[in-house]
């Protein structure tokens, strides 16, 4: 199990954002607000969800995406490392967390729209038989 001291520090720093919790997952932690994962902790580093709106903030700071070893090649995710100075500044951290949460909400609503269509198609196929 991962050391919880960095996780506790991150959750404490994110208290300014309100309602944030962390859950253990895959040797690290998922960072959640209202049941929506908008961040993750791996190897004592914090990563936030990134989309086209907040990606330029990370690129300007020379941040990197979270990458893990897939079966045949490294897999890059849409979570990017939060710079240390942002993590240490509550106001900046709140702003970056809000953007990450918004990105996660957009992704969640986009995927929930797609799922009913798949279910509907499967139902239509069953009725045709």
Task: Walk me through the topology.
Layout: H1 5-13, E1 20-25, E2 28-33, E3 36-42, E4 45-49, H2 55-60, E5 65-69, E6 74-81, H3 84-87, H4 90-128
Distance between the termini: 49 Å
Residues in β-strands, percent:
25-35%
Largest sheet: 6 strands, antiparallel
Number of helices: 4
Name the CATH class: Alpha Beta
Give a quick precis of the structure.
By secondary structure, the chain is of the alpha+beta class. The chain is built from four helices and six strands; from the N terminus they run αββββαββαα.
Question: What does this molecule look like?
Answer:
The protein is of the alpha+beta class and 129 residues long. The protein has one domain: 2-Layer Sandwich (Yope Regulator, Chain: A). The chain is 45% helix and 29% strand. It has four helices and six strands; from the N terminus they run H-E-E-E-E-H-E-E-H-H. It has helices at residues 5-13, 55-60, 84-87, 90-128, and strands at residues 20-25, 28-33, 36-42, 45-49, 65-69, 74-81. It has a six-stranded antiparallel β-sheet. Strand 3 (36-42) and strand 4 form a beta hairpin. The protein is globular. The N and C termini lie far apart (49 Å). The mean pLDDT is 87.
